[in-house]
Structures are given as C-alpha cells and as structure tokens.
Amino acid sequence: MKLCLIPLILAAPTSNAFVSFPTLKQTHNDCGSIQAHRDFEMPLLFEDDEDMAPVAEAYIHAKYKQVAASHGHAVATKDDVREVLHSILPPVTPKELQQEEELILKELLSHKQNSPDAIDEDDFVKSIFNNSYWREAGDIVVKELMYFDSLHCYYKTGKPLLKNDSYDELHENLTWDGSVVATMNAREAEFVSAVAASKRGEPFMNDAEYKALKMELKAEESWVVNRKEDVLEKMGLDTFIGYLHRAMP
Description:
Elements: E1 25-28, E2 34-37, H1 52-70, H2 78-88, H3 94-109, H4 121-129, H5 132-137, H6 139-157, H7 164-177, H8 186-199, H9 207-219, H10 231-234, H11 240-246
Antiparallel strand pairs: 1-2
C-alpha cells in the first residue's frame, strides 16, 4: 500500500463525552421489529459519490475478516461483530455506541442466515451501509474514518487493510475534498487513535505515554496538538477530526 506521509489537533483524553448525535427514537414496524430513526430524513451514503461505494464495501469486508481471523474464526461471531462496530462507527459516547451496536446486532440476528455464532459477511456489510450513524455523519466523516483506520492499521500491524487501488481511490478522493486527514503521519495517527479510543472508554495508552507523545508532536509543531479549524470546518462541514475537537474541554 502506498502511503502519503504529510502532516491532525487534540488535547488530553480526559473525558468520555464525544459530541452527541440526535437522540435515537425506537418504533415498531409492521413485522413488530424495533427500528431506529432520526427526527429528519437522512440521505443515502455516497449518493453523489458513487466511486466511494465499492471502497466502503471493501473496507467493511476487510474489517470483518480482520477481526474474525484475530479470534481464529472463519466467520465472525456476534462478539466479533461487536468488536468491529467499536472501530467503524463514528465518534459517539459509549452509551450511544452501545445503543447502536444493540440495534445493528438485533437486526442482524433477526435474519435467518445469522446466529450468535455466525454472522453472514455480506449481510453485515449491507447492514453497515444502512446504519443510521454512518448516514447521519455523512460522506466526509465516513471517508475520513476509513482512511484514518486504514492508515493506523498499517502502521500498527504492517499489513494494509485496503488493497492499493481502494486506498489510492480513498486518498485521492479525500485530497480533492480538501481533507487534512489525508496528510497524517504515523505518530499523528497514533495520537488521534489514543484520543478516539479514550473517548470510547477504551484507552490503550497510559497518561505518561500520552503526555510524551503530545510533547513530541508539540515540539514538531504538529497541527494535531494545536487546535485550529481546518478548511472544511470553516466551511461548516462535519469532519471526523472536528467531532473529536468539539468534544475536547
């Protein structure tokens, strides 16, 4: 996988308060199953950016396979799927994350091809494309999330999450969008991962390690530790990093 290492903006991960999305409402459809909806109509994901749909599908397939394999499974279990959801849903509070996980899992397990011991891969991919948080967050946030996660995975494991053509398509697309996420380097990606993980209530870095990394990036005058609105935020657009910044004290 070809990587572009160019120069992310955050403070210490001290709170679990991600920016909240509008409150979920639950209603019953004609079949009696619970479904989630928002107070407004949400657009379809990548409705005006059809080149990204195959990339998003490849990304979800890769996450499914990666987590299932890490537990020695050829087919992901309910617990495997929950782990995948932890890393691919946009920034939300632990409570909101749990709510969305339960809704997605409930829907998946209502399908005859799925059981707690085996969740069909194609059905899972379809459910993620339709999940309310991805659609509400919007195209840019989801693209940034996929790129950031792919980059972090490569630096962490040495193995690409996406094939070169999908990665290149995603990087080029974000570059044209003017997204600063396409300019992250390894240490910046690690820093943002630490902040995002802490906000989800799953820290992987202790305070000493976090402070040392933050000081290192400050010395390099990295934009990730010097809070500024990027071009897209100034235009009033939602971004993955913007969600994190607004959650900071």
